[in-house]
């Protein structure tokens, strides 16, 4: 099972991503977590990205893509499944991630959208701030992260809808209800994915992806 998650901050990506990964026994690759770990360890990468995180801005695409490629290569070696949490955040990342996944034979089966309104996610993030003291859980930075989500992340949902792999879940409800709905939906999909893979391998999937990107414009003419 290969899942990528798209959601506003505070919608529960981290929590639900962890539960999905545990349920299917697959790695949970969370870009924000990987970056915060670098910051905490004061690695060169951590020092380079800290200001972006503190300001609620997106770190440069290439930094993220190099990090994610490495993690997806490891996920392939570990059995081929993944939960990607936090990428893609914009159209350029969606396109590049697609090309990386094609290259590795690791395209996503499901794009999971956690749908939650701004007021609710802001309330949750401010509550989390009191417990976790994340540098980007302040009112100003939360507003900036939400604005970015609406401007550059949410528009890419349409690409996954066109491919027929978008699963959208109402994430305004309690965690357990949301996770039950997600796991039920993914469990139902699993045999279909295995069946499709047996019959057609990855080819049919890649063709559909190529068409979706061609129709969407930005990746037209990009060799896949
Ligand atoms: P998150 O934990 O997903 O809320 O991410 C926390 C922060 O990490 C974001 O506000 C960005 O500064 C950075 N970040 C995480 N994922 C990405 C990404 N795919 N592209 C750029 N920046 C990212």
Main sheet properties: 5 strands, parallel
What percent of residues are in strands?
Answer: 5-15%
- Taking strands numbered 1, 2, ... along the chain, how are they ordered across the largest sheet? 2-3-1-4-5
Mean pLDDT over the residues: 88
**Outline, from the CA principal axes?**
globular
Specify the CATH homologous superfamily. P-loop containing nucleotide triphosphate hydrolases
The helix-strand sequence is EHEHHHEHEHHHEHH
Tally the beta strands: 5
What CATH architecture would you give?
3-Layer(aba) Sandwich
Q: What level of helicity do the residues show?
A: 55-70%
Uncertain runs with pLDDT below 50, 5 residues or more? 200-224
Bound molecules: adenosine monophosphate
Class derived from helix and strand content: alpha/beta
Note the main attributes of this structure.
single chain; 224 residues; alpha/beta; Rossmann fold; five-stranded parallel sheet; globular; disordered C terminus; binds adenosine monophosphate
């Amino acid at each position: 099972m290969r899942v990528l998650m798209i959601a506003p901050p505070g919608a529960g990506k981290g929590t639900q991503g962890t539960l999905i990964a545990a349920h299917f026994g697959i790695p949970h690759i969370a870009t924000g977590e990987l970056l915060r770990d670098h910051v905490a360890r004061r690695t060169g990468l951590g020092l380079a990205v800290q200001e972006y995180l503190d300001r609620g801005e997106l770190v440069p695409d290439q930094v993220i893509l190099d990090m994610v490629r490495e993690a997806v290569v490891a996920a392939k070696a570990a059995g081929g499944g993944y939960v990607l949490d936090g990428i893609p955040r914009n159209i350029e990342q969606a396109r590049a991630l697609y090309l990386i996944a094609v290259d590795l034979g690791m395209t996503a089966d499901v794009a999971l959208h956690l749908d939650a309104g701004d007021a609710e996610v802001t309330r949750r993030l401010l509550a989390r701030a009191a417990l976790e003291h994340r540098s980007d859980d302040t009112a100003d930075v939360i507003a900036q992260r939400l604005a970015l989500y609406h401007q550059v992340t949410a528009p890419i949902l349409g690409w996954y809808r066109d491919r027929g792999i978008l699963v959208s879940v109402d994430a305004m409800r309690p965690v357990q209800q949301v996770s039950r709905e997600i796991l039920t939906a993914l469990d139902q999909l699993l045999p279909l994915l295995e069946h499709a893979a047996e019959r057609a391998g990855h080819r049919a999937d890649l063709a559909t992806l190529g068409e979706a990107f061609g129709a969407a414009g930005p990746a037209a003419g990009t060799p896949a």
